[in-house]
Design a protein that fits this description.
This protein has six helices and two strands. It is an all-alpha fold. It has one domain. It has a two-stranded antiparallel sheet. A hairpin with a 2-residue loop joins strand 1 and strand 2. Helix 1 packs antiparallel against helix 6.
Length: 268
């Protein structure tokens, strides 16, 4: 017997209901996998590069979340995973850059004291600051593909974007972050005991860098909203509850099909 229009409609509604049930399971599984991958990347970065690698990798999703929320977008577990992976790849590049700017003054014999406005300042510190400023264009170029991939989920169009925005981004980074960044690197290298206390300043600098590089329109009023910094602790549990509920409903009605409507039965 040919399927009636009402049966077709009921069948379509049933399929859509099943898709909704499946979505809870998918969200739960994907969310768990994304968090697991991110946690593993943070652990690997710590094992390979110590506390510095841990800080760089862990700070990446923090700054990414803040800038994403300022743009009015949701920061998902997939965003978390991608940001952590980007931080893990960036870590050796940043560590290598910092090592270079602190070793080059020694290599060139920059030592002694320099008098500036009557104050005696170590020439080594000034050398680090100078090399840090000079390293900004190179560091921006090295990390450009990573940041582009995180933002666009693909490397397609990278060449065009690089040509259009690299010089502008480098200029903004040098203008707004060059001097404070150079001062922080110089101070932490010259007085290592202060380095742990400068971590919040480095984090603030990283967030500012991400905001300057963002192509989205940012609402800075959201900086005063706690949800910009802290995820909803109940959201993961809502995914779990939705997923478990979906599994229970599916197990309760295996292979169920909508019954044909009474009105569509032939009269006897």
């Amino acid at each position: 017997m040919a399927e009636t229009l009402e049966q077709k409609v009921n069948g379509q509604e049933h399929k859509e209901e099943e898709k909704k049930k499946d979505s809870g399971v998918v969200k739960m599984l994907k969310g768990t996998a994304n968090v697991a991958v991110g946690a593993a990347a943070i652990g690997a970065s710590y094992m390979l590069f110590g506390n510095t690698g841990l800080a760089i990798t862990a700070f990446s999703p923090i700054s990414g979340r803040i800038v994403t929320k300022l743009a009015g977008k949701d920061f998902t577990t997939q965003n978390f995973r991608n940001e952590v992976l980007a931080g893990a790849v960036t870590a050796p590049l940043l560590i290598g850059t910092l090592k270079a700017v602190t070793e080059l003054p020694k290599y060139y014999g920059i030592d002694g004291l320099v008098s500036i406005l009557g104050a005696q300042i170590p020439a080594y510190s000034l050398g680090i600051a100078g090399f840090t400023l000079a390293a900004i264009p190179f560091y921006t170029a090295l990390t450009y593909p990573i940041k582009y991939l995180v933002a666009n989920k693909t490397l397609k169009g990278l060449g065009k974007d690089f040509k259009e925005n690299y010089l502008k981004n480098t200029a903004k980074a040098s203008l707004y972050l060059g001097l404070p960044g150079a001062a922080l690197v110089s101070l932490s290298a010259t007085v290592p005991i202060l380095a742990p206390y400068l971590i919040p300043a480095f984090l603030g600098l990283g967030i500012t860098y991400r905001a300057l590089m963002s192509k989205d329109k940012l609402d800075y009023k959201k900086l005063f909203n706690p949800s910009t910094y802290f995820p909803n602790p109940l959201k993961p549990f809502s995914y779990i509850a939705e997923g478990l509920g979906s599994l229970m409903r599916k197990s309760g009605k295996p292979g169920s099909k909508p019954a044909p409507a009474l009105a569509s039965q032939p009269a006897h």
